[in-house]
Design goal:
The structure holds 2 protein chains of 2 kinds.
Chain A: H1 3-28, H2 32-55, H3 61-91
Helix pairs in contact in A: 1-2, 2-3
Chain B: H1 2-25, H2 29-49, H3 53-77, H4 90-108, H5 120-123, H6 125-137, H7 143-151, H8 153-174, H9 195-218, H10 226-244, H11 246-252, H12 255-278, H13 293-324
The chains are: A mainly alpha, B mainly alpha.
Chain lengths: 104, 330
């Protein structure tokens, strides 16, 4: 196994871990805002790390370019979606969880 | 390898079933719409596993993208929670569902085993014709496109007529032909007031349209073609309309221009068929379009894909404008 393969494996595992944390967070966090924070991790860190891990395994240039474009697209759209969701929730008056409240 | 494949298939199918069951149990229609998008996404993944990349692409673009937006547009006009049907009146529905489901389940017993090498699809001589002879007849690598646009060009024309008719139906129900419009009061807030979404969607817009063109013209060589490209075009316009407001979107593409485009695509398709007849071939026989049959086929497929793209994009955008332009009736 070459260094690149090990590095790619580590990145893929880290990405999978981030996706898993996102999923667990979605289920465990108490209110809307903390939940989209968890969902945001799936989009940005999870998908980003997995794409970087895949990028080290490509065998042709055009695949690499495509992966880079997808990475760029996700880096732009994911955080925007999370941001605008949180904004809309604030505007509609979705209550925020404080310590001691019940889970919603 | 096979076990991994089976495992992925089984878990995707489990997710699909769970989603379907959840949708039927939900009364909140917004949530049901989002889950329907998830259903389409999982279906698209299953199509990819089956190596049906073109179908997966269409499912992802239509099922996940544009139909979710259209359903949300409908929900903005109606109530967002399902009304409760009395228990007695649910019986006929249940019987109909059980009958249809039972018939489908019974019919599926006749299907060949999954992945079987003896299935008619593998055995029938026409498979060989499409997969190998199409390279000589038409000379484009993506067999799906040669079947769709050339061998079965007439069927695709029928599909385009279906899309066209759907657009016409929506226009006559929600467009200017319906009762006088109650214009929607100007909203006190626009998504464009948020700088982040304004800048990001503005910056992405050219790339979305560029990607649609890529999908349109790359259909000969990889997954893609007119239907997918049209939907991507439409989602670009829909995104623009959602962020910058309907008025600005209609200044970019006026309604009258859209209505012209809806029929232009179909006319282009039929016109191509008539042209080939006038040149001495049969309807939609592209060989006669150029001195070399291969060049003729390329040209014909390009025109057909463009025609499909124009009609699909304008029908989808018209439907969105039709929904979004209505005054909220409550």
């Amino acid at each position: 196994m070459s260094v690149i393969e090990v590095l790619s494996g580590v990145l893929l595992a880290a990405g999978a871990l981030a996706v898993l944390t996102g999923g667990v967070g979605m289920l465990r966090f108490p209110d809307f805002y903390t939940r989209i924070h968890a969902a945001g991790i799936t989009d940005s860190a999870g998908a980003g790390l997995i794409l970087l891990g895949l990028l080290l395994r490509v065998d042709s240039w055009d695949t690499a370019v495509r992966l880079l474009i997808i990475l760029l697209f996700l880096a732009l759209t994911g955080p925007t979606a999370t941001h605008i969701l949180a904004h809309a929730a604030r505007r509609d008056g979705v209550p925020m969880w404080r310590e001691g409240d019940r889970r919603q | 390898m096979t076990t991994t494949f089976t495992l992925i298939n089984v878990s995707l199918l489990a997710i699909l079933t769970a989603t379907a069951v959840t949708i039927t149990r939900l009364r909140a229609l917004y949530e049901a719409t989002m889950l329907a998008a998830l259903f389409s996404l999982v279906t698209a993944c299953l199509f990819v596993l089956l190596d049906a990349v073109d179908v997966a692409f269409t499912e992802a673009a239509v099922g996940v993208g544009i139909s979710t937006v259209l359903l949300l547009g409908v929900l903005a006009l109606t109530r967002s929670s399902e009304s409760v049907t009395p228990r007695r009146r649910r019986l006929p529905g249940a019987i109909a569902v059980l009958l249809v489901g039972g018939t489908l389940g019974y019919a599926s017993l006749d299907l060949p085993e999954f992945g079987s090498a003896d299935s008619p699809v593998q055995r029938h001589p026409v498979t060989e014709v499409y997969l190998h002879q199409s390279q000589e007849d038409i000379g484009i690598p993506n067999t799906v496109t040669s079947v769709l646009a050339s061998y079965r060009g007439l069927d695709t024309l029928g599909e385009l007529v279906v899309v066209f008719t759907a657009g016409l139906a929506v226009l006559s129900l929600l467009g200017p032909l319906a009762r006088p419009e109650r214009t929607r009061p100007t909203a006190d807030f626009h998504l464009a007031d948020y700088r982040v979404i304004r800048v990001v969607s503005g910056a992405l817009m050219p790339f979305i349209l560029l990607f649609a063109l890529y999908v349109l013209f790359h259909g000969d060589y990889g997954p893609g073609g007119g239907f997918q490209a049209g939907v991507i075009f439409a989602s670009g316009f829909v995104l623009y309309g959602l962020v910058f407001g309907l008025d600005r979107a209609q200044r970019v593409v006026p309604r009258a221009a859209l209505w012209l485009l809806v029929s232009l695509g179909l006319l282009l398709y039929i016109g191509l068929g008539v042209t080939t007849m006038l040149l001495g071939g049969s309807f939609l026989d592209y060989d006669v379009l150029a001195s070399d049959p291969d060049t003729g086929q390329h040209l014909g497929i390009l025109v057909v894909e463009t025609a499909i793209g124009i009609t699909v994009a304008s029908v989808m955008t018209t439907i969105f404008f039709g929904f979004a332009g209505r005054g909220v009736a409550r």
